[in-house]
Design goal:
The protein is of the alpha+beta class. It has 8 helices and 18 strands.
Length: 268
């Protein structure tokens, strides 16, 4: 099953980082957010990825064209130009980087991928949000209801402390009380090919397509009440970085040893 990663937007709210690279390529723990999202899916056996590129797509292509080498210990012959891999931590993924337009909105990006996706169920998510989503359970839920689309519903943490007031007196204060927030779109979609009929070229996926699918009873919600975090600001990036450095990253469902391989062959 193919996994589509939406990675073409400008990321203007994180302009401190995105003037040099697409937002999904902003790093946490020395690796791009995109890599973290892909590791989540690959841990559950879904490693056939299609990246919908747009803004600074060359950065994404350059990264994946070099990932195998950069993730390896190597012996180089500067005379012959050959190298021999000793060990590699490169993931065994198939990654298609597809240019879907610089200013294309998310529904249009999916439409551009229709020739690659029209014949089977596929998954879609954003390249800048991580969570400890149980992908097999998400798929089981999607298959159980028989509709065209499933969205993962999440409860984001409150961005600000909650105040209970009596006149000017604060009678209670609670920091980041997640239960006071409603359910929102967390990405991690599953779609049937029939969902393409709802897509329009010049609108976000989150507007007319999903609104009309919900009106027709074709959109269901998979509830995820555990960790989920998008990265729209430097504060959110720093939060994920802190969790990673502390060894307390809830979205890290994979083990570091999953990708390690030993090589004895020589390659060009």
């Amino acid at each position: 099953m193919k996994v589509v990663l939406l990675a073409g937007g400008l990321g203007t709210r994180l302009s401190e980082e995105t003037h040099l690279r697409p937002k999904p390529m902003v790093e946490v723990g020395g690796n791009p957010l995109l890599w973290h999202v892909m590791q989540i899916y690959a841990h559950y056996g879904f490693d056939d990825f299609v990246i919908a590129c747009g803004y600074k797509s060359d950065v994404i292509k350059h990264y994946f064209s070099n990932l195998h080498l950069l993730s390896s210990s190597c012996v180089f012959s500067t005379k012959s130009g050959h190298h021999r891999l000793i060990t590699s931590n490169a993931p065994e993924w198939d990654v298609a980087c597809v240019d879907t337009g610089l200013d294309t909105l998310t529904a249009g990006r999916l439409l551009a991928l229709k020739p690659m996706l029209k014949d089977a169920t596929f998954m879609v998510t954003y390249g800048d949000g991580v969570g400890n989503i149980d992908i097999p359970k998400l798929l089981d839920f999607h298959r159980s209801h028989g509709r065209l689309a499933t969205v993962t519903a999440v409860r984001p943490k409150a961005r600000f402390g909650m105040l209970s007031l009596e006149d000017n007196k604060v009678v209670s204060f609670s920091e980041k009380n997640q239960l006071n927030e409603g359910w929102v779109n967390g990405g991690f979609f599953v779609f049937e090919p029939g969902f393409f009929d709802y897509l329009t070229q010049n609108e976000p996926l989150e507007q007319t397509p999903l609104v009309n699918a919900s009106k027709d009873g074709e959109l269901m919600a998979y509830f995820h009440d555990d960790f989920w975090q998008p990265v729209d600001t430097l504060r959110e990036k720093s939060y994920l970085e802190e969790l990673w450095q502390q060894g307390d990253a809830p979205w890290k469902v994979w083990k570091d040893s999953e990708n390690q391989q030993l090589f004895e062959t020589e390659t060009l």
